[in-house]
Amino acid sequence: MTSVSLSSNGTPLGQTVAIRQFSLTADEPVALGGQDAGPAPFEWVLAGLGACKAMTVQMYATRKGWPLTNVSVNLSYEKRDDGHQIQADLALAGDLSPEQRQRLVQIADRCPVHKMLLSQVGIQTTLAPFPDPPGDKSVGHPPASREEE
Fold first, then answer.
1. Is residue 59 classed as helix, strand or coil in its secondary structure?
2. What's the chain's Rg over C-alpha atoms?
3. Same domain membership, residue 35 and residue 46
4. How buried is residue 30: exposed, middle or buried, by Cβ count under 10 Å (0-12/13-18/19+)?
5. CB-side exposure of 92: number of CA atoms within 13 Å?
6. d(CA 49, CA 1)
7. CA distances, 77 to each of 24, 41, 94 (Å)
8. By CB count within 10 A, which of 37, 95, 119, 121 is most buried?
């Protein structure tokens, strides 16, 4: 299971993103009410997809012993009347045959994030108690009884 935690960072829309030992920032551009202090949500999705495609291609080429020396992925997202469209342009460096290049394009489309985005993903949102700040008993969970007030 993979998990990520986010919390407002005190700016209008900014979020502090905690992923394992990493602390990152998500935000919206100024034109959308943010401060442009980090990537916007759709950019995070594209980054995850691009990283997954590149890593999957690199792992496959390494396992096959193919001379892949670099992978570059450029992605764009567009909301259309008929749905959503992501364009992924995959550039492969190295002395690869045309057949190897085509195979790596196919492999890129088999990365786990690509598969997840194409599947029917269930998303359940529940209301959780706000965590208490360290040492502060006055915020967060309501008291269990009136005696705790």
1. helix
2. 21
3. no
4. exposed
5. 26
6. 18
7. 22, 12, 28
8. 37
Q: Is 124 helix (H, G, I), strand (E, B) or coil?
A: coil
Continuous H helices in the chain: 41-64, 98-108, 112-118
- 40-77 pLDDT, tens digit per residue, is 999 999 999 999 999 999 999 999 999 999 999 999 99
Residue type, 113: V
Residue that is written with structure tokens 């195979």 in the block: 103
pLDDT digits (tens, 9 = 90+) for 80-95: 999 999 999 999 999 9
**Structural domain span for residue 83:** 40-119
- State the Cα–Cα distance between residues 28 and 8, nearest whole angstrom: 13
Residue 49, both tokens: 């997809």
Q: Quote the mean pLDDT of the chain.
A: 92
Counting DSSP H helices and E strands in the chain, the numbers are: 3, 5
Q: Are 28 and 48 in contact (CB under 8 A)?
A: no
Do 48 and 25 belong to one domain?
no
